[in-house]
Amino acid sequence: MSLLPTVSRRTGTRYGRPSIESQVLYNACRWMLRPVVGIAPLTPGAMRRAAVLDSAAGVRIPSGIDREAIRFPGFDGELVRTAGSTADLREGVVLYLHGGGFMCCGLNTHRPVVAGIAKRTGLPVLHIAYRQLPSTSISGSVDDCLDAYRWLLEQGALPEKVVFVGDSAGGFLVFATALAAVSAGLEVPAGLVGLSPLLDLDCTTKSVHANARRDVIAPVSALMAIGKLGGQTNSPVDGDLAALPPSLLIAAESEVLRVDSEVMAQRLAAAGVPCSLQIWNGQVHAFPAVWPGLPESRAALRDVARFIRTRLDAVPPQARCGPTPGCGRKLFGKLNFRFAYGFSCAAGFSCPDVAVDAIARA
Predict the structure, then answer these.
(1) Which of 43, 123, 188, 339 is at 20 to 30 A from 307, Cα to Cα?
(2) 254 is catalytic
C-alpha cells in the first residue's frame, strides 16, 4: 500500500530564522571548508591523511557518560551509556554509524552526538569504527555494520528494541545495513534515522540540482569521487524497501544531499513504509553531528530521541515468543499470530507452530 511521506520544514528557533551560532558555522564552512574540499584531490593518500581527524578529536571526552570498549574482528567499537546507567540491551539500544565519506572520522569525532543521543534517550548506544576506504570497500563497511548488529542480537538485544542512526555516509550504512539484514534472514530493527544521509551513489540528479552550487560542505565532485573509489555496491534508494521499518530523515534545506532524502522519502512511502522528512533552514550538512550544541541541533536530536522512544514503545518486550530450553521451537519475531490468536504452549509462550496446530484441530 502506497503512503505519503510526512514532510516538515524546521528552523529550530523561536524567531523563525537560523540561530547566531548556526549562522557562524554556515559561513565558516562556506568561506573556509568548501573551497578546500572543492579542489582537494580524493586519493588513497588523501584518505589516509584525513583519518587523523579522529585522533585529533580524541582530546576532549564528553562528560556525563560511561564508555565500554568493544572489540570486533577487524574494527573497534564502544558502548556509550549515561553515567551510572545499568540499562539492559533488551530494554533498547541504538546502533550509531558515523559519517565521514567512508574514509575518515570515527569514535572520537562522533562521540559528542552519540553522547547526546544516549543522554536524551537513556539508552545505551553502540558506536562502531567500521573499516573505511581505502582499506576496504563500501561493501566492506556494510559488512562490519551488519556484524555489529548481529553482535547486539547475540548479546540479547531484540530487533524490535533496536534503532539504527547515522549521519552522512553513516546514513547510507543505516539503510544498507537494514537491507543487508533482510537479505541475511535477520529481523529488521524497529526504526531507521538518517541525518543528512547519502543514499544514492549516482550523482546525476544531484549534479544538476540548484543545491549543487549552494552546499557549503559536500561538493558533488567529492560525492562522485567517493562513488568511484567505493567499489561496486548498490545504493539504498534502489533497494527493495518494503521490508524496512519506519524511518526519520533530517536534511538541511541548502545541502545537495537533501535530494537523496527527498527521493528516499518518496520511495519508502511508495513501498508502504512510514517515513518522516524534516528539512531544516539555514543549516549545514549533518549539522546535528557536526555541532551537537547548536540550538537547532539540540532540537533535532530531541526529535530523534522522540522517534527512537516511539519506535521502541511500539511493541512491548513481553510480546516476543521466548521458548524455554529444549522447547524445540525457533524464536518467533513476527507477532501476527500471537496478537491474532493468542495461543500459548505449556510453558506459557506463543509461537506460530502452536497457532497453526490449534487452527488445524479446530
Answers:
(1) 339
(2) no
